[in-house]
Amino acid sequence: MAIPLFDTTTPLEPLRARIEQRVLDVLRKGAYILGPEVAGFEKDFAAHLGAAHAVGVANGTDALTIALRALGVGPGDEVVVPSFTFYASAEAVPPTGARPVFCDIDPGTFCVTPDTVRAALTPRTKAVVTVDLFGNVAPSAEIREATGLPVVEDAAQAAGATRHGAAAGTFGDVATFSFFPSKNLACFGDGGAVVTGDDALAERVRMLRFHGSRDKVTFEDVGYNSRLDEIQAAILREQLPSLAAWAAGRRAAGAYYAEAGLAEVADLPIPVDGADPAWHLFVIRHRHADALAAVLADRGIQTKAYYRVPTHRQPAMAAYANGAVLTGTDEAARTHLAIPMSPVLGREQAEAVVDAIRAADV
Ligand SMILES: *Cc1c(COP(=O)(O)O)cnc(C)c1O
């Protein structure tokens, strides 16, 4: 049985005709930038999350840079960010003028903790980026409480996840999303959003995404040209009502793995206390992860090690790594392996993957 790492087409099939119609509607109306579809999506997405404001931007990386800028992060400041995440979580910091300072994670949850963040604080720390990695939900509220610092929740991988009943994306002072085509909520190109409950912060984000101007006449800050476009917003609006069901499908797939006995042959990802993850990727840990991946590939089961070289060891971050010793990060980097996950991954597929891991003998 060939099993792909993810399946982004099957869940969309029932919506495809309606999405295509909405794209055609946008083309016929001819309003492409910051029109009714973006305004509508911003309203729908904020309501869906239970947040006061969502602001559409060009991608999830810009969303982080703009969120940090809106918080007042700038030259001379430090921003604490995990190393074990997609590279963009840290890459978004230097464009603000601030330096990323890398912190560790709990390799069980793949998320930062109040302790790992505390260990990276200095008097120059201006903000903390928490990452809801793989669709888990980082303890952002506790980190805010423990540090007294503003928290940017990078929820790029966590659309559809909840913690203590509230949506991922509502736990920081501000949160960011990516709608890159492989994410839990995805457009047909690049897109992103900044989400916040703070009226003034939302105003600053809106200003920064449009060249630092509120009225297109006066330019009060050096900003960005970073907008979600009308076509992508229309595509996202059509999908948003399905997000909860897709997240439920991801959870069900995670449960199939557990029921098939995956914990006997690998370490399962651990939900953060109170979290109901929307597994963007289902990432196990295994002592011989690369050998296991090779055996599974021979059986047609696709896997991937996403962050074998964590961000603080990437060449572009050498100036910021500062000799950081991150043992949880190194362990996760060495042992992690994403196995197939999607909203439509069935029980039989999960059982086939677990059987193959059991038989792999590595
Ligand atoms: C995808 C992703 C980003 C960046 O989003 P883009 O839309 O690709 O710029 C940032 N952080 C995390 C954790 C991501 O997974």
CATH class of the largest domain: Alpha Beta
Adjacency order of strands in the biggest sheet:
1-9-8-5-4-2-3
Enumerate the distinct ligands.
pyridoxal-5'-phosphate
How many β-strand runs? 12
Mean pLDDT over the residues: 98
Helix content: 25-40%
Radius of gyration: 20 Å
* Uncertain stretches: none
Tally the helices: 13
Note down, in words, how this protein is organized:
This protein has a seven-stranded mixed sheet, sandwiched between helices. Strands 7-6-10 form a three-stranded antiparallel sheet, with no helix packed on it. The protein has a two-stranded antiparallel sheet with strand order 11-12. It has two domains: 10-241, 3-Layer(aba) Sandwich (Aspartate Aminotransferase, domain 2); 243-360, Aspartate Aminotransferase, domain 1. Helix content is 36%, strand content 14%. With 362 residues, the protein is α/β, with parallel strands linked by helices. The mean pLDDT is 98. Helix 2 runs parallel beside helix 8 (230-239) and helix 9 (243-259) crosses helix 13 (347-360). It binds pyridoxal-5'-phosphate. Pyridoxal-5'-phosphate binds at residues 59-61, 85-86, 88-89, 131, 154, 156-157, 178, 180, 190, 192.
